[in-house]
Amino acid sequence: MTRLKIFTGLIFSLLILSASVVMAAAKTPTIAADSAILIEVSTGRVIFEKNADVARPPASMTKMMTCILALEYFFPYEEIRISANAAAVEDSDLELRAGDVLTADELLRGMMLVSDNGGAEAVAENISGDVARFADLMNEKATDIGCTNTHFENPHGLPSNNHYSTARDMAKIATYCMRNENFRDIVSTQREVIHWLNPSDLTVKVTNSNHLLGQYKGANGIKTGWTRAAGGCLAASAKRGEIELIAIIMHSTDTVTRFDDAKKLLDYGFERVTKIHEIDKDRVEKKVFVRDGAQGTVAVGLSEDLTFPLLDDEDEIKFTVTYDLPKVVSARISTGDVIGQAILKYDGRAVAKVPMVACENVMRGWSVGSMLVGWTEPIISVAQDFLLVLLA
């Protein structure tokens, strides 16, 4: 994992941990589920939460992690063979049999649409050899994404004593997954015909267990879940215009109220979020001094557009941006190296952050500019304006 990916993941985790600005305009929905959270996708801003940090069984929402690891590991047409062990896993609606062979794409579609547990087991075995080692991979990925209270023991979410997560962590995982276009395509599909490679004439028609698809305006994912211990679970997403939301429901009373709760949260979010405040990354360029380099400065810019959802009781004029950058960095510098961060503030309070990265390569070496930086480094704060003009 690159430094930029790790940095971005950490920033995203910090953002999703705070609800930012107090929300009071729209009527707060009453949610039946014991835990829930609603976030705006582009920044992770929390719009609503209820017991979002209580650890609970995530049931088949677990398969979001299984699916994204498979998409990152397999080629779409890679052949997946079903073992006797995978075929014997309970609650497998695809009715997989030992010796069956499907492409990774077909298996993942079937697994996600009908929540096939045997398919999830097959993914784990084909990637890591067994479930235990695949669970280690899942937990490593969860940590990289920024989860702080999640532990996986299997790839499907069937009950296990030490298999748990929180609504907040599930939102982080869902957001990460939805950045993958293949994942998006799978979880937004209402109906599909799954084809086997062996036996070659076998096909099965499947319907997505997510009832919001086709019924709720803008619904585009993600994953249902249910066990007796976990209750009704749902990761639901919807996009209208530039605004995309994710709602996580955990431990709902049954399989119906999880959809009702999700609709309430999504309605609330679309009512509250009026627009996305955005600063185009191409409009921001700063200079940072370089020591021991072939040139005296390096151009630094935003790694991505700096965005933040504006709520119905907030004023865009109250947004400001500050740049947290070092005065001097050492060569060698490569394009894309993280140099600092841009901080978006609302009414003086930090609400979003984006890494600032080098826009060019600077080789280690000697230059007049870098020499001047070295001479003036002890008083660089005083001399920086003069040096920037001199080195322009």
Short key terms for the protein model shown above:
392 residues, 17 strands, 6-stranded mixed sheet, globular, alpha+beta, 11 helices
Oligomeric state of the chains?
single chain
**Span between termini:** 35 Å
H/E element order? HEEHEHEHHHHHEEEEEHEEEEEEEEHH
What's the count of strands?
A: 17
Report the C-alpha radius of gyration, rounded. Answer: 24 Å
Q: What class would the helix/strand composition place it in?
A: alpha+beta
The portion of residues assigned to helices is 25-40%
Taken as a percent bin, the fraction of beta residues is 25-35%
Strand order of the largest sheet: 14-16-17-12-11-15
Q: What is the overall pLDDT average?
A: 91
The description of the largest β-sheet is: 6 strands, mixed
Q: Which descriptor suits the 3D outline?
A: globular
Provide a descriptive summary of the structure in words.
It is built from 11 helices and 17 strands. With 392 residues, the protein is α+β, with helices and mostly antiparallel strands. The strands form 5 sheets. A 6-stranded mixed beta sheet has the order 14-16-17-12-11-15. It has a 5-stranded antiparallel beta sheet with strand order 2-1-9-8-7, sandwiched between helices. Helix 5 (117-128) packs across helix 6. The chain starts with a helix and ends with a helix. Mean pLDDT is 91; it is low at 14-24.
Write a compact overview of the structure shown:
This protein is 31% helix and 28% strand. By secondary structure, the protein is an alpha+beta fold.
Q: What layout of secondary structure does this protein have?
A:
Blueprint: H1 3-16, E1 35-40, E2 46-50, H2 63-73, E3 79-81, H3 84-87, E4 101-103, H4 104-114, H5 117-128, H6 131-145, H7 167-178, H8 181-187, E5 191-195, E6 203-207, E7 219-227, E8 231-240, E9 243-252, H9 257-272, E10 273-279, E11 285-291, E12 297-302, E13 306-311, E14 319-324, E15 328-330, E16 338-346, E17 349-358, H10 368-376, H11 380-391
Helix pairs in contact: 2-4, 2-5, 4-5, 5-6, 10-11
